[in-house]
Protein 1
Amino acid sequence: MHFGFGFKSSTLLIFFVHGIIYTLLLLYKGFRNEHKSSFWLAGFIFLCTMYITPFMLGYAGWYAIQSYREVLFFVPFQQLFLLPPILYFYVKSSLNPSFSFQKKDWLHFIPAIIYGVYSLVVWITDTMIADEFYFYADGRDKDFALWYQVAGFIMLLAYLIASLKHYTQYKKNTYETVSFADAILHVWIQRFLIAFIGLLIIRALFFVINPEWNNFGRKFWYYLAFSILFYYIALSGYVHSIKINLQFLPKLDANLSANFLAEANQKEKETTSEAEDFTPADIEMQKQLSHIMENERLYTNPNLTLFDVASSLDTHPKKVSNIINKGFKMNFNDFVNTYRVEEVIKKVNSDESNVKTLLGIALDSGFNSKSTFNRAFKKQTQQTPKEYFSSKA
């Protein structure tokens, strides 16, 4: 098989090979551990790999050879209408392990299905019906048609923004519901979504400052940047799936279900425009909440959720959330960590640090990791633990 090895083709070939490898690894992990998100990520990485394929092969000389050029023409490598919804459902399945694909979700794939039918019609017409090329009479690959590239760009940007909004809402709900938010935030998802939007902005600038965007040779640096980004997504996603299996994470199905997050989100929408006064009953419940936190030391449970606290008060979780938001002016995660930080300071001042390490004291106080402890401590005291206790020595 012909392949002209040069700087551009060889560079993209490296990312192509790694893309295929990570696709297979994620599929294997998906089957082995029944991770739905791994299947979605595998599909996304595969589509990204196919996205750079025509350029890798083009720089390798395929467009200069008739039989190879026809392969590039008729195979729709750049699935610009399929890649955005795949990305969106990967984000949704990562943030909600119980996510299941519904019939209505097929609506997201209608543009991709239509383009797939169009590609099939082009192939049948030009290879089986017409005596000579009809659709490809101009000798241009349809995947690079301006209307398709622009439509795909807009669709991907829209789905990226929708994914980022979904993550932002998930992050807010998580901080309002559990005391171990840092363990389940999937921060890297937010990072790559923002990075992907940045990449699209760069591509938009190419359209503006490079009127010869259709010039094949000038696109290399954009596709190199795209390759680096999807490689980062593949590597981070795979490592993240491994960490989930290796580290202990609270089982959320019993206490923190996706149904509750949806319910909390819905109730938030319903009450956004209804300003509720802080009633005497609310003040009394606030006192009860403080009492059980201090006397029953619920905060020492590293897996404490809003459900647990509501159960102790014999009330609805949403009621407890409102009390914390309005009475203490903070979210549930910060509320619990405030008690944990105070507990750490109290134990250190009582010379317990002579027996245990600072991390050991933090874990006994309810924190589940050193990084979470450091962030919570600095947020409350505006100093790192080291700075704080050094100044008190």
Protein 2
Amino acid sequence: MAEVTKLIHKYLRHDKKFPHVWCPGCGNGILLGALIRAIDRTGFEKDDIVLVSGIGCAGRLPVYVDFNTLHTTHGRALTFATGVKLANPRLQVIVIMGDGDAMAIGGNHFIHAARRNLNLTAIIVNNNIYGMTGGQYSPTTPYGALATTAVYRNIEHAFSIAELAVTAGASLVARGTVYHATMLDRLIEQAIRKRGFSVLEVISHCHTQFGRRNKMGGAVDMLRWQKENAVRVEKAAEMSEEEMAGKFTIGVLVDRDLPIYTEEYRKIREAARRRLGAVK
């Protein structure tokens, strides 16, 4: 308990930004705890961290932490983060986005950030819905699910965030859940430490907008669903397609070393300066 209190006073704006706006039982609170525990283990100073977010429930997270923070416009968190990283590559840039924020209006930015392999960390909270703005279906809403903009059922097929990140070229791609909180700590820490563009998809729950509408129960019921349907990557490799039906993998999907954009960009700048010096 003393350690928890220490982290709260060290990393949270506890004296001016609380109570938070999240619904009771929201997975974002679990993510917030995992994030500050992971950052504490990395040893980075608070001034080394820049936490960037867009709009939505997950986008509120930087408001509550005592780092350098940037609350940006909808879908543009990665573009702002790119500018920060290019301006000062020394900073540890972490981007928090929701599934609608990252995959809909921000989808093209996400693909190209992964392709460039920028040296930053993208954490995408996937709760299958637009939670803050009224329960509209998002690019990760399952086929057949209900939403305020799909009152008869959603007829679009969902993006797989992690697999899209792998294909687009991210260096590290992982998936966790807010139920597996200890594992989530480790995945966030690994993503922050990774050199290159690291993506962590966090399966969370929105019992207010998604669970209630789709008769999935409350927060505890939705956490139980995560427990029962998440399969660690190592175990999934030993299971048949039939055994994996309706389930999803958690853990590190890809960990590879690729040229890092900020380092390649620095080489281009140095080459241009040498050439301009020679011309003069």
Protein 3
Amino acid sequence: MPVTTAAAMISAARNALIEEHSRRIDAGEPVIAVAVEAPERTGRSFASVEHGLGDHARKLR
């Protein structure tokens, strides 16, 4: 995988996490609730980047 593709995937995962956290907070969810779940969500997101989309690609068809 070219370095630029890997960088784009990492950046996209990071941006998606930021957007999701901001959306939840803007919707009135307590910041602490978002913060408590952030490490687990981050781990899942970057695991998807590391290991590919797996079953997600099949679910999108």
